[in-house]
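Subject: Interface between my chains keeps coming out wrong

I've been trying for a while to get a sensible model of this assembly. When I model each chain on its own everything looks fine, but I need the whole thing in one frame so I can look at the contacts. Pasting all components below, labels as-is. Any help appreciated, I'm running out of ideas.
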Amino acid sequence: MRLLGKLTWAAIPWNQPIPLIAGAAVIVVILMVLAWVIVRGHLPYLWREWITSVDHKRIGVMYTLLGLAMLLRGFIDAIMMRSQQALAFRAPGYLPPEHFDQVFSAHGTIMIFFAAMPLMIGLMNFAVPLQLGVRDVAFPTLNSTSFWLTATGALLVNISLVIGEFARTGWLPYPPLSETTYLPGVGVDYYIWSLQISGVGTLLTGINFVTTILKIRAPGMSYLRMPMFCWTALAANLLIIAAFPVLTATLAMLALDRYLGFHFFTNSGGGNMMMFINLIWAWGHPEVYILVLPAFGIFSEVISTFSGKPLFGYRSMVAATLFICLVSFMVWLHHFFTMGAGGDVNAVFGIATSIIAVGTGVKIYNWMFTMYGGRIRYATPMLWAVGFMVTFIIGGMTGVLLAVPPADFQLHNSLFLVAHFHNVIIGGVLFGAFAGITYWFPKAFGFKLHEGWGKAAFWFAIVGFYVTFVPLYVAGILGMTRRLQHYDVAEWRPWVLAAGVGIIVLFVSMVCQIIQLVVSIRHRDALRDETGDPWNGRSLEWATASPPPAFNFAVLPNVQGGEPYWHVKQHAVAAGQLAAEPDYQPIEMPRNSPTGFITAFFTTITGFSLIWHIWWMVGLGIAAAYGVFVWFAWRDIAEYEIPVEEVARLDRERRRARQEWLDAHAREIA
Amino acid sequence: MGRWIIISCVAFALGGCSGGIFDARGPVGAADAKILLDAVGIMLVIVVPTIVGTIFFAWWFRASNARAHYRPDFVYSGRIEIIVWAIPLLVILFLGGVIWIGSHMLDPFQPISSPNKPIRVQVVSLDWKWLFIYPDQGIASVNEIVAPVGTPVHFFLTSASVMNAFFVPQLGSMIATMNGMVTQLYLQADQPGDYLGESAQFSGDGFAGMHFTLRAVPQAGFVQWIATAQQTGPELDKAAYETLQEQSQGVRPSTYRAVAPNLFDAIVKRQIPPSAASQVAATGPGARPVGGH
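Reply #2:
Try treating it as a single job with all components included. I did that and got this:
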């Protein structure tokens, strides 16, 4: 037995300049950042305040940062794919198939699991406890562990860039291609273990948030007083709990096939690959709604706030959310109409799929009527919201079209399909993430993002989106299938080139986003918001300071109806002064813990050694990761107390800023 | 309005999209495309007003518009709720009918009604080429199908390795090919021509080159092609098949003058084991070395 399993120097792609240079550049950047952090003495601060933090707001910010970093990585993959196809007309292009296949597989995997998921989970982490009017989630240390396990998965995928290879299967590793018979390398194993580990993190997040929303709410915050984002977060996390075990089990079966010679999905030994496709989509379709439901919630908050109106048809929206949550589990077969299930089965699943559009249709109309009679302020989040509505209606229409089996028989796996799911994921999830980030950024950091650069980013994104993906719809209608490393049909060429132009526009949008962040940080004093309520908000997160203190609320709010903060604010404006100072009490908060980080460290080692068959290190990693949890369970002190003077001091500061604002604005509002 | 949109869609499709799924050359493709356009038309009836309404509301109720009424208390209307649930529901009910009828009428296993007896073709997807066996004529071809115009072709499809999908965009529906299983598909070309065929399911490194031509020719041309094929080329016995089964890319079209009896059944029943070559071995000199091999 070799000490390092399958790992040798040959695992590093010495003869492939692209991944080698890209990998080297990433490593250099990481080392430079690390060196800067250490030299400037920020390491203790980072360790104390962020890495070991169990504060849902900090974890939310870290999730979002991870999501944005991975979005950048996935976008670079997208640029490579679009440029390869632009060049590879009757030519080999610059990416050989074995590399191109890894690029599109990594693009999909990274975008879904390590960009979209962390962005949505990050925003839920940040906003849900604040909106519920509570101090933290139900299991704060578990929350930190969830984040670090997700980061482990992202790290493993990125390690595959320089050590070994990534899967060459597409973002879902359909067997038998993904079996060792056809792909004996480590690519599929990187896929399996990075998703298994981050999947555990996601499942724990689901349990954490369902518990939080069901069991921990401010006094008086009944279910039907919760902001819409909390409802969609509840629905998304219920879906996580129901769907992610299916993913874990499916990938475990594939791992058994690959590692121990089982025959779940193999060609030989009675295996059946159709079962994998069935199971993976039984997770995969709910996954789409896990991503888009929180985005719906964000848009509900944004549209209501910037229209200066409560959400129209709140109860109808709750019903539509739960309707989508339920039906999303009954449609997965539409991903393989072309496997020949027969007319009855295809028809039933086609109809079930289009029924989901009823729920989303209701949501669209209720957003429309929220704007109706409103006084709409076009700050950046509202631009993203209107851009979303128009784009998502089109994406929804092409989605229902693909649910019509005879149409799917011609469009399945074509670029039309690719354009459709980018239409709903970019137009829905990503626009939602950007709306949410701009909306809650001032809450997290105490200053707004620069509006000019934000608006520029929006306009380039929406134009870039249409210029990229409308041509792909057309190319799909012309019969161009997805994942082509090269092609020689002349009719497809102009559309592929147009999509290449589109991605340049999207690149400009991304640059605007980065500039927006830099400019905003540099001019943070000019953009500062003292009141904690920069958008004239309606739900409880705007009732506290920006950034909120660790304990969120000095005194837990007593909720009297829907939109509790809006009513408190109206009373204060009418009276010209804040309500009487509350009776402050000392507050107990969970102590920071390195459990999550250390567990994830050992899990990374476990994952890496599983991929490379370094069995002794697998045992060591699992034992150590488990040991960390046992050690955590034995802790004596779980909480620390914030003294009453500190609570009072922080809250009086907030009250002073609020009173100043009231004095300045009460007259003009009245 | 819906009709005009459909017409303009068709005009756009035919004007700008030669060779695509709207440029159908057979009954299945035409029916698929018709259902597709019907569905688009039905949906556009509500999609267009919804988009227009969204943009209009978003524009009219902007804060700077003094003429717009601010109605902050307009948060619920039972009448509007009934309408917003009813409209999508009605559209989906209507579309549900289209789906039900369409997926039965155009189920790939459904024969095409025709006075002509269907030609039988057995399809095997290999890494990375297509093998077509004509069991009744006793010949086989690689990466090229020749079929008589106006006669249905009854395909029986399987895979000797990973999953693929057999797809001729201008003729209609695609269907998956899977090892150990047989799917069926009926297609028919109504006009002579060379039609692009492809795999619609990613199958590995040679996937991009895995296309074929379906040549639709008049009956006489078909008979002649069969006759020529029966006299030229090698014989596809078990040994020849095992050579063909090995991974290769960019394979030129060719024919076999004879085929071992029941070859297709032997492949389906795995009496000839499925191709087992790893894709790493086949990637050629540019292949990336991976530890452990």
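Reply #3:
Confirming on my end. Chain B has two domains: 2-68+76-105, 119-272.
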